[in-house]
Design goal:
Layout (H helix, E strand, L loop, with lengths): L5 H29 L11 H20 L5 H4 L2 H25 L9 H30 L6 E6 L3 H12 L5 E7 L8 E3 L2 E5 L4 H7 L4 E4 L6 H11 L5 E4 L5 H6 L3 E3 L2 E5 L6 H22 L1 H14 L5 E7 L5 E7 L10 H13 L17 H8 L7 H7 L3 E3 L6 H5 L14 E3 L1 H5 L6 H14 L2 H16 L6
Parallel strand pairs: 1-2, 1-5, 2-4, 5-6, 11-12
Antiparallel strand pairs: 3-4, 6-8, 7-8, 9-10
């Protein structure tokens, strides 16, 4: 089981208690003024339990989404207070929307009750999180909440990071030592911090030194070697974080946790892999079925427009590469004029794009714009041309969230480390689609996909799906 930092567990448990107390206070107030038990808290029914559970999950997700479990938010009073206000406001808006969509006999039916609940939640969150727990953390950070870490990388980057953490340590970190293949065992790197061993010895070092977290700080290393190091570190049931120029795009595009002002990419395996895959597939089947039914009018409208404005079939079929490199038939609405055979011009452009991206971070998505139809420009811009992929999801060729499926010739031109992106089912949307879309270079899109694979969880999938909606609605970055 992964060692979750104690401060995260502390704040998570406190948030559950805050929500519970807020429900109880709301129930008492409503009972006092209206002489009725609004949610029957002291005589709970199954409906009451399910309602409280749903409310709690909703708010905990919003708290996590807004960074309320990140140490750089927790320890900065202004950022912490802002995140609390933002989270409770988002919760307020979400519940208002739900109350209009679904008729439920509950706290939603009373504006006064909902007002009391929101005010209570805001006050208790401020009082307990900022005035109590943040101060408590400051007192306990070097004792009960202290975390033992090792730094993988004894070079310039490792030394600079260690120096900053040692002399500006406000987050309760205890650096045990360094791990480096190019240093001698016992060699002093900075202060009294020495080399504990080589990278292949990390499992033994973690166990013998009771390590809570591995911090990888390496710049002069290839992607292949970096991923090999991650594979070794992830065998341990400890947090694994990376700060490296190789993953700069993740820190730029994704809200990551920071130690002081150092952005860290968390690559720890959060939940059981088999459970994650089972839940993901169950959700894919349910959501894709509901989506196909609900979106059927849009399907019909797009089909009619395509047929009326250009010659050719409504759907576009193509062979793409799926999980573990296996090909499958990929569905889209046709957005281009019919062309006999494969688009050789685009193929050449794409291969050149992939090669240039190795040295050019400003490369963007390759599109042969001359072939796009008038209707195609609209549905591509809004990603509506991707809707038929719900059939791929239902069949099991794809997932709702994951790396985008590549073409066979693209896969053949991948470097070894890039082929890791086919280790999971491809998706209809993913991290780079909601953070950069067409503006992200090829290399960076691969890095973002690998970040997703290393952090794959129901929480992350839900965040990506929520972010996909405004990206489609406002047509951000589409071509």
């Amino acid at each position: 089981m992964l060692k979750i930092p104690k401060y995260k567990t502390l704040f998570f448990v406190s948030d559950i208690c805050i929500l519970l107390i807020s429900f109880i206070i709301t129930d008492i107030v409503i009972h006092h003024y209206h002489k009725k038990v609004l949610i029957e808290f002291f005589n709970p029914t199954l409906n009451t339990v399910l309602l409280l559970f749903a409310f709690s999950i909703l708010y905990l997700f919003i708290f996590q989404y807004n960074g309320l479990y990140k140490i750089n938010i927790i320890l900065v009073r202004a950022a912490h207070l802002t995140a609390i206000f933002k989270s409770i406001f988002y919760g307020f808006i979400t519940i208002i929307v739900i109350s209009f969509l679904i008729k439920v006999t509950s706290i939603l039916d009373s504006r006064f009750a909902f007002f009391i609940f929101t005010i209570t939640l805001l006050f208790l969150s401020y009082l307990i999180r900022i005035e109590v727990l943040s101060r408590l953390y400051t007192k306990l950070k070097n004792k009960q909440l202290k975390r033992n870490i090792i730094i993988v990388g004894g070079g310039k980057a490792g030394k600079l990071t260690a120096t900053k953490l040692l002399f500006e340590n406000s987050i309760g970190i205890n650096i045990i030592g360094f791990v480096d293949d190019h240093k001698v065992l016992g060699e002093e790197i900075i202060g009294s911090k020495r080399v504990l061993g080589k990278i292949e010895e990390i499992p033994d070092i973690v166990e013998s030194n009771k390590i809570d977290e591995i911090l990888i700080v390496m710049d002069n290393v290839s992607y292949d070697r970096m991923l090999e190091i991650l594979d070794i570190c992830k065998q341990m049931e400890v947090s694994v974080r990376v700060t490296s120029e190789l993953f700069d795009i993740v820190a730029q595009k994704v809200q990551t946790e920071k130690y002081l002002d150092i952005p860290l990419v968390d690559v720890s395996s959060r939940i059981n892999y088999r459970f994650n895959i089972f839940f993901k597939r169950l959700f894919d089947i349910t959501a894709s079925t509901m989506g196909l039914v609900a979106l059927s009018p849009i399907f019909l409208t797009i089909a009619m427009l395509i047929k009326a404005t250009s010659f050719g079939p409504i759907f576009f079929y193509q062979t793409r590469i799926g999980k573990d490199g296996k090909p499958f038939k990929f569905y889209k609405f046709r957005s281009m004029f019919v062309n006999g055979g494969e688009d050789e011009e685009r193929k050449k452009m794409m291969i050149e794009f992939m090669r240039e991206s190795k040295n050019n971070d400003n490369s963007t998505k390759v599109i042969n714009i001359k072939r796009v139809t008038k209707v195609g420009r609209i549905i591509r811009k809004t990603s509506l041309d991707e809707l038929p992929q719900l059939f791929n999801v239902l069949k099991g060729d794809m997932s709702l969230v994951g790396p985008r499926p590549c073409l066979p010739y693209e896969y053949e031109n991948y470097a070894n480390w890039q082929k890791r992106r086919v280790g999971v089912l491809p998706g209809c949307t993913g991290v780079w689609q909601v953070t950069g879309r067409s503006s992200v270079s090829f290399k960076d899109s691969i890095v973002l996909d690998l970040y997703y694979i290393n952090n794959m969880s129901p929480w992350l999938d839900l965040q990506i799906l929520i972010k996909t909606i405004p990206v489609m609605f406002f047509a951000r970055g589409g071509k």
